[in-house]
């Protein structure tokens, strides 16, 4: 399968009886996204080619101004950068993995090891930063009730 050859983990989601068949999907955040661009852009799946985030749809429909949309994007980028910096402070230098995967790996490391006060504080700040990033991403970018 082409997506697997591109390095994406793929699973099958069954459609409802009315829709019939099934559709392929892959977990998010996407492994092909390096933080600011798609590494497989020319070969990206149809879903990615057709995807429009909620923020883009709201801006196109006039429900959000361009200025407001840019502020939301800047806030999301700032929150992602905060997560990156905290991961680095905790010793995770791996820029190949998505932030969510890096956070979960760090959580497992923290759970297995002894925490001094400094690491405990950093990990608490990281957990909060990841939560804040997830909130803005889920509210502003992913399809949901705002459509």
Brief overview, please?
With 147 residues, this protein is mainly alpha-helical. It has helices at residues 2-5, 46-50, 54-60, 66-89, 99-112, 117-140, and strands spanning 11-14, 22-25. Helix 4 runs parallel beside helix 5 (99-112) and helix 5 runs antiparallel to helix 6 (117-140).
Write up this protein.
The protein is mainly alpha-helical and 147 residues long. The protein folds into 2 domains: 2-51, no CATH class; 55-140, no CATH class. Helices cover 53% and strands 5% of the residues. It contains 6 helices and 2 strands, in the order H-E-E-H-H-H-H-H. It has helices at residues 2-5, 46-50, 54-60, 66-89, 99-112, 117-140; strands spanning 11-14, 22-25. Strands 1-2 form a two-stranded antiparallel ribbon. Strand 1 and strand 2 (22-25) form a beta hairpin. Helix 4 (66-89) packs parallel to helix 5 (99-112), helix 4 packs antiparallel against helix 6 (117-140) and helix 5 packs antiparallel against helix 6. The longest helix has 24 residues, at 66-89. The chain starts with a helix and ends in a 7-residue tail after the last helix. The mean pLDDT is 84.
């Amino acid at each position: 399968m082409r997506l697997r050859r591109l390095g994406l983990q793929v699973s099958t989601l069954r459609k409802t009886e009315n829709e019939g068949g099934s559709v392929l999907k892959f977990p998010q955040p996407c492994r092909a996204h390096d933080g600011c661009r798609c590494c497989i852009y020319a070969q990206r799946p149809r879903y990615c080619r057709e995807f429009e985030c909620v923020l883009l749809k709201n801006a196109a429909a006039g429900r959000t101004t361009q200025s407001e949309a840019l502020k939301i994007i800047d806030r999301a980028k700032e929150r992602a950068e905060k997560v990156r910096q905290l991961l680095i402070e905790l010793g995770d230098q791996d820029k190949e993995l998505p932030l969510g995967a890096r956070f979960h790996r760090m959580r497992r490391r923290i759970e297995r090891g002894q925490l001094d006060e400094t690491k405990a504080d950093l990990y608490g700040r990281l957990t909060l930063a990841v939560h804040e990033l997830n909130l803005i991403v889920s509210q502003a970018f992913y399809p949901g009730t705002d459509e």
